[in-house]
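so my prof wants the structure for this chain in the tokens format not the other one, which i didnt know existed until like an hour ago. anyway here's the sequence
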Amino acid sequence: MTAAKAIREIMTSDGYSNARLGEMIGVTPAAVSNYVHQGRITVETLLTVLDAMGYDLVIQSRADWKKVIVIDEASESRKRKV
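here's what i got, hopefully its the right format
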């Protein structure tokens, strides 16, 4: 699954509009639309969007499913605009 598709699914299931999410992360609704439809999103922006919606980015080993790393830049992502 792509990052853009994951964001779209979260937005749909959790009831986020482009306007609401844009307001939460300090961008226009058009910018949010670009993230979720064009699929061009940096890791930094992805972390900011996920943090705003209450989600984390998780890296998990394919070889050993018990190896999990949670990327937590929440405090940093709140300080910067996308």
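also thought this was worth mentioning. The chain has a mean pLDDT of 86.
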